[in-house]
Specification:
- β3 and β4 form a beta hairpin.
- With about 250 residues, the chain is an alpha+beta fold.
- α1 packs antiparallel against α3.
- The chain is built from 5 helices and 11 strands.
- It is about 35% helix and about 15% strand.
- The chain has a 3-stranded antiparallel sheet, sandwiched between helices. It has a two-stranded parallel sheet with strand order 1-2. The chain has a two-stranded antiparallel ribbon with strand order 3-4.
């Protein structure tokens, strides 16, 4: 009596099916681990950035000042700020991070805090801006995207706070109390920047600079005024990474 050797077609198909299932599980688990690792890298990057800003502000004895302008070339529209570290250039795209890094690079304590960031993310990218300022450094996330910066506004004056209270009492928004019309943030007594009130729909908290990575889908998401859902049906802001939770503003 002869003994059967080898596998039948059914057995081969079953074996191939099992292998395929195991392979898909490995890929799924591996992808999840990789995504968590990339998110951890971004969170670590943001921690270093927060520490660098604190080091710079402590060494100077004053917070960073972000100055809003109606035009990147019209110096007459200086938003009541006598001094600023970074000016608003509303027509030049992603510019705030390179200018912020330019300030931090000039301070030993701040630059030391940034030294732990991988060169894959903290990159040399020379650029000269329309107002003549030259920057050398830029910060990108593991997916190659520019880190988004939402700067806090300057402190509101007493007159602006008073006007804002009057507007709220009358059932209106605080935009009329702001010289540039973006509104007054009554939570931390600042005038909102265009990035907070118009583009991002998110307000800074406690005058802290807000940093955001768009995540692997490279989409900022509807919560920040950008748009909708991914192909798999997930909300497009679900994978965003921020250094803290901002105040979400109404669209």
């Amino acid at each position: 009596m002869s003994r059967r050797s080898g596998f039948t077609l059914v057995e081969l198909l079953v074996a191939i099916g099992v292998i395929a299932i195991l392979a898909s599980l490995v890929v799924a688990v591996g992808g999840g681990v990789l995504a968590r690792g990339e998110r951890t890298q971004v969170e670590s990057m943001f921690l270093s950035l927060d520490q660098a800003i604190v080091a710079l502000e402590e060494s100077r004895g004053q917070p960073l000042v972000f100055n809003r302008r109606k035009s990147p070339t019209d110096t007459s529209q200086q938003d009541n700020a006598r001094f600023s570290d970074v000016d608003e250039l509303t027509s030049t795209g992603a510019y705030i991070m390179p200018r912020l890094l330019r300030l931090l690079a000039g301070n030993p304590g701040a630059w030391s805090a940034l030294s732990s960031i991988s060169p894959d993310f903290l990159r040399r990218e020379d650029k000269t801006w329309p107002d003549g300022v030259r920057t050398t450094w830029n910060l990108r996330d593991p997916w190659g995207e520019q880190i988004v910066v939402i700067p806090p506004g300057r402190p509101a004056t007493r007159a602006e706070i008073k006007k804002a209270r009057e507007e709220l009492k009358a059932g209106r928004t605080t935009s009329a109390a702001d010289p540039l019309g973006f509104g007054i943030d009554m939570g931390d007594a600042t005038v909102r920047t265009a990035d907070e009130g118009v583009y991002m729909k998110a307000a800074c908290v406690g005058r802290r600079w807000l940093f955001l990575s768009k995540g692997p889908d490279r989409n900022m998401g509807q919560a920040f005024g950008q748009g909708g859902t991914n192909q798999d049906g997930t909300l497009s802001w679900d994978d965003n990474v921020l250094n803290y939770e901002p105040v979400r503003l109404n669209p």
